[in-house]
Amino acid sequence: MSATELDLSASLLDRPHHDGSELYVVERPQELGGEAVVRIRVPQEVAAVVLRWVEDGEARGVEAGEGGGAR
Predict the structure, then answer these.
(1) pLDDT score, position 69
(2) What is the pTM of this model?
(3) Cα separation of 48 and 38, whole Å?
(4) CA–CA distance, 48 with 31 (Å, rounded to integer)
(5) Hey, how many other C-beta atoms are within 10 angstroms of the C-beta on 36?
(6) How far is CA 35 from CA 31, 67, 69, in A?
(7) Measured CA distances, 6 to 24, 34, 48 (Å)
(8) Residues 50, 64: contact at Cβ < 8 Å?
(9) Per-position DSSP letters for 14-60, written without gaps between them
(10) pLDDT value at position 21?
(11) CA 46 to CA 71: how far, in whole Å?
């Protein structure tokens, strides 16, 4: 399957997932620009997880560490 094809036989539960609920946002920042602790669930082993965000109009990213913490 190519990256542009959609596998309709699999549910979204078979894909990496996160959302803004209390289940996935473990610690919220007290103020804008603060740090947050988030959780992601993946259905199988992955080589890496990268957190991506936009700051001052620029896309940024950091590789997440297993069990918590950035690398």
Answers:
(1) 58
(2) 0.50
(3) 15
(4) 29
(5) 10
(6) 9, 17, 11
(7) 25, 36, 22
(8) yes
(9) GS-B--SSTTTEEE--SSTT---EE--B-SS--S--EEEEEETTEEE
(10) 75
(11) 15
Is residue 16 within 8 Å of residue 45, measured between CB atoms? no
pLDDT at 26: 84
Classify residue 63 by its DSSP letter: E
Cβ atoms of 43 and 14 within 8 Å: the answer is yes
Structure tokens at 17: 């997932």
- Give per-residue pLDDT as tens, 13-71: 666 666 667 777 888 889 988 888 888 777 778 888 888 888 899 999 888 876 665 55
